[in-house]
Amino acid sequence: MNLPHFLADDQLNKEQILDLIALARDIKQQPKNYAQALAGKSVAMIFEKPSLRTHVSFDIGINKLGGHALYLGQQNGKLGERERVSDYAKNLSCYADAIVARVFSNDSIDQLAQHGSVPVINALCDVYHPCQALADFVTLAENFSELSKVKLAYIGDANNVSNSLMLMAAILGVDFTLVCPAGYGPDEQIYNKAVSFSAASGAKFLLTHDIAELGQQDAIYTDTWISMGDNANVADILATFKPYQVNYQVMAAAGASIVMHCQPAHLEEEITTELFDSEMSVAFQSAENRMWAQNAVLVTLLTD
After folding, report:
1. How confident is the model at residue 230, as a pLDDT?
2. Which is the catalytic residue, given 132, 217, 245, 294?
3. Each residue of 137-167: pLDDT tens digit?
4. Do 103 and 155 lie in a common domain?
5. Of 44-53, 57-66, 78-87, 283-292, where does mean pLDDT reach its minimum?
6. Catalytic member of 10, 102, 126, 157
7. Which of 75, 106, 128 delimits the end of a domain?
């Protein structure tokens, strides 16, 4: 697979995504076969934003592949402040075999890829969260026998997670419904890309502000209403989003069998505690699959 970086869902094609999903599942089922896949390789991990799942899943995942992970945290300041992002990328490329970056701005991701000479993996930015989306589609593939027939809905605030989910769904040909309050919908450019990819793949794509238009779904996804670092009026947000809470009633109305959440969950806000802790929830299955999905990306970038 010719994949120089893993930056954004809209830079991947259907075959590449399906290959990554299949590889992630194979690594998960037969980890010993990949125990030395990154032997002698070092991965620099830049974290501008705090993290639990991303940090641990990359660090331990790289170790399971026989590689070495180096954590570069917030003590180095925001990218571009202490020194240019281009210099940062060139310096890291002198030492590391790949760069993982969890950053505030997608521009930082693009600059790292542009100026570095090693593969760059987007571990989250303000526009995309491709590692999460890949893990979620690995999870869907484990729960449904035919991924192309899955109907997936996202309810809540349009953000980097919903962007990546709807783009990946559109490319794969998976029907996707995005339900968010008026004024909290997706960026127009991302929306237009999803519409275009859906038309090409034959997937149905619906954006609505009315939760009553949710329709029949197989899986429902939600995320926090207040994203990390947002300076929002919490009371106003909670009042606006209250009708969009995912609960047993929403699941039953849609006929959905699983509920998904990228975590951390704000229980009793976007999702009820009862549903999040139920057998319908695959939140922790997706959390585990972050490691296997990311390992598939690493193996593809560093061993092809």
Report:
1. 61
2. 132
3. 999 999 999 999 999 999 999 999 999 999 9
4. no
5. 78-87
6. 102
7. 128
262 close to 223: Cβ distance less than 8 angstroms: yes
Domain count, the chain: 2
Catalytic residue list contains 132: yes
Active-site residue identified among 125, 131, 180, 262: 262
The pTM for the full model equals: 0.97
Assigned domain for 296 exists: no
Q: Is 111 a catalytic site residue?
A: no
Residues 271, 213 share a domain: yes
Which range marks the domain in which residue 112 is found?
35-128
- Cα–Cα distance between 276 and 260 in angstroms, integer? 9
Concerning whether 180 is annotated as a catalytic residue, the answer is no
**Looking at 97, 136, 157, 223, which residue is catalytic?**
223
**What's the whole-number mean pLDDT along residues 289-297?**
98
Structural domain includes residue 141 = yes
Asked about 25 being catalytic, the answer comes back as no
> Which residue is catalytic, options 5, 53, 129, 261?
129
36 is catalytic: no
Same domain, 168 and 207: yes
Looking at the structure, tell me whether residues 140 and 273 fall in a common domain.
Answer: yes
Question: What whole-number distance in Å separates Cα of residue 24 and Cα of residue 299?
Answer: 10
CATH of the domain at 228: 3.40.50.1370
> Residue 175 — φ and ψ, nearest 5°?
-65, 135
For the four alpha carbons of 294, 121, 102 and 98, in that order, the dihedral sign comes to: positive
| Annotation marks residue 68 as catalytic | no
Q: Residue 36: which residues within 8 A CB-CB, separation 6 or more? A: 65, 66
pLDDT at 231: 63
